[in-house]
Each structure stands twice: as structure tokens, then as C-alpha cells.
Amino acid sequence: MNKSKASIALAVSLLAAAISAGCGNGEGLTVKEPAATGASQPASETPAADNNEELLQKLQVIASQAKNAKEVTAYLDSNISEADKATADRMFMAMESFVESFLPGLNASFSAMLAKPGNAETFRGLGYPPDLSKIPNDDPLKEWFANQFAAKFMLDEHEGDPF
Among 57, 135, 145, 149, which one is least packed by beta carbons within 10 Å? Predict the structure, then answer.
């Protein structure tokens, strides 16, 4: 029992020391603004800012003209690393807006694809996640799935219904 009392006393002492070491008066700590390095240019006039705007504008053009989502996703994947953080955020917002407008049509085309004779049975035979190798090579259903997976959309199931 003496060992446990000594251990507790040691732990309490260490805790008290740690707390008191972190509690100083803080008089020695100050925050200084970095020194200005001459006249700075407005952000919109710098080459990096121009490139960022160009990246965002091109994404918006591609999204407005895209026939499928893989075009937009491919552009975003290949160019997001060139953007600064603020532009990357805006690019993701543009992608999110595109997806929100694209999904209703995608879901409708999925329903139409499954309504075609034999497609629902083929779909059920794919397993989860879908194994596209089980679909014959020239089948439009395989192409449809390949396009959606290339766009990084995923197929999910809710209460037995795929979406």
C-alpha cells in the first residue's frame, strides 16, 4: 500500500508541476506583425491569382458543357493541385453545384437503364460493388456504369433499392 500512496503522491506532484509551469504571467510573450516588404500588388494582378481564376473559370465552362460527370471530375483531379487553398475551395464548391444539378438526370437515366429488358436482371447479377466484367463488352449498361465510376460516383443501396 505504501507503493500506491507514493505513486499517487508522485502523480499529484507531477500534475501540479505541469499545471504551474504552464501558468506564467505571459509578460514576455508578444506577437509582432511581419515587416512589410515594399509595395505589394493586389492579389488579382499577380500571375498566381490570374492562374487561379483561370482554373476556376475553365472548370465552370467544362461543368456547363459536360455531357457526363467524368469530364468535370477529370479536370478537377488534374488541376486542383495547381490552385491555392481559396481557389481549391471554390473549385470544390463549383463541383458540388455541378453534382447537385447533374444527379437528378443521372438518377433518371439509371432508372431508365434498369427499365430496359434484361438490364435489371443483369444488374442484380453484378453483385455489390458491381463487377462490370460480368456484363458483355458491347452492352450499353456496362458503358453507363463505367462512365459513372470514372466520374467517381458510387452506387449505393438503401432498403434493397440501388441508387
Answer: 57
